[in-house]
Structures are given as structure tokens and as C-alpha cells.
Amino acid sequence: MEMKKKATIVDVAKEAGVSVATVSRVVNGNYPVKPETRERVQSAINALQYVPNVQARELNTRHSSTIGVVVPGLYNMFFAEVIDGIEKSMRRQGYSLLLNCAQNDPELEMECINALVSRSVSGIIVISPNTEGLREEFYRRIVKRVPLVFINGYHRIPNVSYVANDEALGTRQALEYLTGLGHKHILFVRGENSDSYTVKERAYRAFMAEQGLFNEKDIVDIGEGNNIDTVTSARIKLMKVMPELAPTAVFCCNDLMATGAIRACKRLGLRVPQDVSVVGFDNITLSKLVDPQITTMDQNMFQLGSNAAAVLVEMIHGGQSKRITLENILITRESTGPCKTEA
Amino acid sequence: MEMKKKATIVDVAKEAGVSVATVSRVVNGNYPVKPETRERVQSAINALQYVPNVQARELNTRHSSTIGVVVPGLYNMFFAEVIDGIEKSMRRQGYSLLLNCAQNDPELEMECINALVSRSVSGIIVISPNTEGLREEFYRRIVKRVPLVFINGYHRIPNVSYVANDEALGTRQALEYLTGLGHKHILFVRGENSDSYTVKERAYRAFMAEQGLFNEKDIVDIGEGNNIDTVTSARIKLMKVMPELAPTAVFCCNDLMATGAIRACKRLGLRVPQDVSVVGFDNITLSKLVDPQITTMDQNMFQLGSNAAAVLVEMIHGGQSKRITLENILITRESTGPCKTEA
DNA sequence: CTGTTAGCGCCTTCAA
DNA sequence: TTGAAGGCGCTAACAG
């Protein structure tokens, strides 16, 4: 269908009988303009419904007011909530947000970022980045061109800012809570392709080793950890391994997996928490909607997002990179209880 | 911190010893270039890490490759899943996606759209728009400047495209299913501020009236229907009205509300589905993760999104506006069963 | 096949 | 206080 051709600054200038420079001045309000000419320009603007062309402006000021956000996907509410935090605080500052879903595919993640760079966004936030291997070199290069903030990224790269929960500490706290309940055999459930899992696994290994409770077999990887099938794949995997392993508790790297764990228990005829305790991570809204409600480490996603936004804006204005670490809080709900054999 | 100045097409041309036109040609691959010069240009590009400036390109081709998406919020997974559908198919076509959350606030919704227009996005998709009252005039004006697609929008505006599920039909089907199970007293649970609810309510009224089963009191509005508190507010509201109304079934306008309904039943000591049946709408992943799993009308959010994307692209290329209606499928799960008094 | 050149719409010195 | 003019980085005729 026919679109009305948009009026340009030239049209407005002609209409008002002034130069384009003058129009530019009243639009941006950055230089003095005589009140009456200003008024003349204003009415020309209204008459033509003139809307400045952002591309042109940004082309010649060489900076854009949009930022890029890259997430693995939207299926895990974790990301949706973080984005919400970013969006709300960015909007307040006048930035718009270009969203890219990398589908947990490292290749695609890089593509997305390249696309963002070529759109000359003025900054990029990557949630749960994939920074292993080659990617490090890639990010080192990117950060030379545009400010970068990682949310829950662990691989340190110079000049990148980090906003994260202390997931290692959070893991330890959860584990301490579980051992405090008398549990000695605790499964560790993780996914693939995210530094978060690795950090948590490391914390798990350390803690369990300290307690003399570590067993390699207790670490189970369910594959993709953030998509529409995660709950199911966690359930299936756990139904396979739990009968043999017979743990009294299960620590899951996120609430989706925890949900799967609970379903696995139900199908296996195990009661939660009487027969086995389950703890999750994130505290997405889902975690209090399933039955039993999940005991989980809260990541306060909204704060994660708004902090990242704040740091990014600082960097855009020339600030140094920095690291912000938030602390997790354990939300005790119904999925955990004292170890049976102790009771 | 210092950002490395980006190489421009001129730098590449100089480096490769060719003209900018040639560089442009190899970058865009739209005109023949001798293989060896192409190669020379390529290596110059790599050497300088040249990334084309999208703003500049779009400025002179006069069309942008980004589209805008406006949603009420991300807390209801419904929106996240629709966005996923949009994103995936838009990416394939080379478009990026500017995301705005209007927080179910009609004013903010208009602001978002204005911002999008001034960024000269080449099209806008609005999910569950708020089109009552003044807003109609607003949208009529917008659609003169940029192609517009509404997902699940019901207020007809000329030249706007619509992609929707037949929510009225879906409602009727769900209701027929319930009456088929012997239910005669069915509550209708809705939220505020969205045309979807109104459409469903109309279908409910019509159907129940036909059956001689309608009662004004059976319509309950729980307020905001898509945010983080929806489950809770639905639960609270229903715990208040259910004891008096004593329905044998509850129809909810979305799965969040259905989840709230189930929780309300539990707290009231009513078993689902033995004492009361609950049906939801949308079929978000949550609906099969709660206990009991929710019987719900599937909206196939992914298709909603990808269809909207397809239509928008058509319109961008000059196509006429159109309406696409998808049909819902009832997903029967555990939250519904035969009416007790019939059994 | 390749180079030259004229803009795209806007901002910003520099003069007036 | 205002206007003229030179780009920003790139594409697309138009010549060669």
C-alpha cells in the first residue's frame, strides 16, 4: 500500500522560509533562535507532520541511541525477566532496545553481535554468554568497538563489564542448606553450553569434596538447559539415573530443571520432599506455581537487568568497565525437607 | 574507555587500491567483480575488520531493515513465545527487531509506537493492542506512515493487518466441551484492558444465553491479566467469590488465571477436577507444568508470531493489508472432568 | 568489469 | 540570530 512520503528538514525549511540550519536548531534546541522564527518553524513542522530521521542524525553524530541485547532464548522466564529490567531502565534514559535470540548457539551468538555492531548500537548486553574457546578472541575484538556488558558471564575479558549473581556462593549456600538438612547424597543437575553451569559445578565439586561426599557419577548433564524441552529432558534423564543413584536430594542449575526433577520423582513414585529434596536456581515465577513449590536461589532478575543497563550507560558515556556482583538469597519453599534416613 | 575508530568503506578502498564502488559491490554482491579484485577487497576488509555502517546504507536506500514489536510485557510467557516466532522468521529475512514493553499502559503503548516511527522502522507488530477510545484515531494516523500488524487485535482499522486466533470460536469450543461434560454452572474469569477478554466474554455470554445458563454474576474480572501478580490476584479474587457462587467449572481467559484458579480451589479444599473443572487459554508451557496439568485452548503462539512476521514483510514490500485467522485446538489435560452431580 | 560522482537527511562549523 | 556549505558512510546511476 501507498505510504505517505515523509517530510524532510528541507521541506520544513522551505515551508517556514528559513534555512535547514535554523530548523535543525529549533528541533534540537541547542542554539538560540528568535522566538518568532522558532514559532514559524514549529507550525511548519506541525503542518507537515515532520519527524526527524533518526538514521540521518545518527549517521552524522556517529552515535546511536539504541543498544543491543542478546539472549539465548525467551523460553526460560529468567531471560524475560532480565530483559524486563533492562528495558524499563533503558527506556527511562531514552534508549531503545534491539533484541536478538541466539538460541544457545555460539555461532549464532556471534552473528547476532556482528549484526548489532553493524547497526552501530552504542552498547551491547549479553545474557549468559558463551565465552569458551574461540569466542574469547571474538569478544576481545568486539569490545574494542562497542561497550559490552555480560550478565552472568564468567570468562574474564579485559574492558568488558560484568553484572552477575555470585552463583558459586549461591550454589554453596544451597548445598549447605541441604547438608544441614542431613542430606549426604546430592545429585548435581546441569545443562550444556553455558558458563553458569560450569561455575556451579565447580562450586559443587569443591563443597562436596570438602565434605568427603563427592562422587563423579552424581553430576548429570541434561543437554540444552533453556528451551521449551528442558523440563522434559531433565525429567527423562533423571528418571533414567535416579533409580540407580538413589540420591536423597537433587540440586538443579535452574528452575526448569528442578521442575523436571520433581516430575521425575513423581513418576518414579518418590515423594518430594519426603523421599527426595529438590532445590532449583533462579526463582522464576514458575518455581512457586508448581506443586510442590520449589525451594530455590533467587537471582533477582530484574535487578540483574537494571544494573546491567546502568553500567552500560556509564560505559557509553566513557566510564571504565567494572564488575558488579549481587548476592543470592535462598527462598525456602516446599520441595525440600530433612533427610529421611536422619528423621 | 577508548573505542577504536571504525574503518569505513573509503579505508577499505584505499587499502585495496580500488574505488569505493567496487568495495560496495563485493560487500553487497550485486554486481560482477573480477575474482582477483574481489579477493583483494576481501582481504582488505578482513585486515581492517570492516563492518558496513547500516545507518548510512539505510539512509540512502531509504528503507530500514528493522521492525518494531510492542508487547504489554514479558511476564506472561504467551508474549515471549510469540516474540520468539517473530524473531526467528524475521531474522531469516534479515530484519532486526526493536522491542518495546508497553506495560499494559495505553499511553505508553502510543509513546512506544511514536518512538518506533521516528526510528523509521519499516513495520510494526503490536501484540494485544489497546485500541479502544482515542487510540483508534492514533492508529489511523500511524498506519499512513508505516505498515502495521496487530496480533489478537479486534478493533478494525483500515489498512492494518490482523493475525489472530479465533478466540471467540475457541471460547465456544471450550465451553461446549465443558457442557458436554455435564457442567451447567461455569464461571468466566477475565482481566482488564485487552480486547481479547472482551471478545471472549461476548462469546461466553452468547453461548451461555443460548443454553439458558447465563448469570451475570458468573463473570469475574481479576484486574491486570498479564503481569507478575496475575496468578495471585486471580487466586485471591476467586477464593472470595467461589464459595458463594459454587460453580462446577471455571473458564479462564488465560493460563495464568487458570493457574490462579487451581490454587484457589486447592486452598478452598476443592479438588480439581473432581469437584471443579478448570480450563485455561493459550497453552503456555506453564500449563503442563502445574499440577494438575491444565486443559487449555492452544493458541500456537509461535505460528501467531511467524504469520505476523510474514504478513508484515508482505506489506513492507507493498502488499495489501489482510487478515489471517488461525484456529485453536483444545488440549485436554488433567484439570477437567465430568461434572460431579452428573456422575 | 571498474571508477566517478551525486546525493540520502541531518548537524555543525564558519561567516555574515 | 541566521545562512551557506561541507561532510557522516554508503549506494546507484553513468561513464569509461
Short description:
Two copies of one chain form a homodimer. Chain A has 343 residues and is of the alpha/beta class.
The CATH C-level class name of the largest domain in chain A: Alpha Beta
Helix-strand makeup class of chain A = alpha/beta
Q: Give the SSE string of chain A.
A: HHHHEHEHEHEEHEHEHEHEEHEE
Q: Largest sheet of chain A, order of strands side by side? A: 2-1-3-4-5-11
Which percent bin holds the helix content of chain A? 40-55%
The named CATH superfamily of the largest domain in chain A: Response regulator
**The biggest beta sheet of chain A, please?**
6 strands, parallel
Question: Could you report the average pLDDT of chain A, rounded to the nearest whole number?
Answer: 92
Beta-sheet strand percentage of chain A?
Answer: 15-25%
Q: Separation of termini of chain A?
A: 73 Å
Low-confidence stretches of chain A: none
Described by the principal axes of the CA atoms, the overall outline of chain A is elongated
Largest interface: A-B, 57 and 57 residues
Quantity of strands of chain A, as a count: 12
The protein's oligomeric status is homodimer
Number of helical regions of chain A: 12
CATH architecture of the largest domain in chain A: 3-Layer(aba) Sandwich
Q: Domains counted in the coordinates of chain A: how many?
A: 3
Give Rg of chain A in angstroms.
Answer: 26 Å
- Could you say what the CATH topology of the largest domain in chain A is called? Rossmann fold
